[in-house]
Amino acid sequence: MxxxxxxxxxxxxxxxxYGKWYGRAxxxxxxxxxxxxxxxxxxxxxxxxxxxxxxxxxxxALRRHLLNSDRVEIEGIGAFKVGIRTVAANTSAExxxxxxxxxxxxxxxxxxxxPNGQVTEKNRRAGNFVMNLLEGVTVQEAPKNFVTDKEPxxxxxxxxxxxx
Length: 164
What we know:
Distance between the termini: 39 Å
Helix content: 10-25%
Number of strands: 8
Largest sheet: 3 strands, mixed
Number of helices: 2
Strand content: 25-35%
Shape: extended
């Protein structure tokens, strides 16, 4: 299994990477809760109905805890919490719920430290953090990627710089 990517060229004038190519991860398929339940039921002793019920209740319980300002940790997957975007106020007294502009769910995957057997200058272990869900990940170009880099990028409009 590999994460698929497609080639994309930076075309925004003024960007320091204007004209350069980079990869962007692509989604090839959408997996539903019912499909997950069926897959889990086939690899465990739980029935499809039991697995589906647990997954559905997981979303209900997760929502309940997030709305109660809890951080929810799911072993092997990661932690979820609510984040907000606010508008600043001049004083603490002026800041309130009216300053909250939007909400989001922040996800932090579980990571573990993998030492490489070396020691840093400050006598600490050296190594990398590896996300459980991405351990052993590889990449592969997505199918039907007809992008080529033979077509030149047009020069920026007169008076516009390619550097910010």
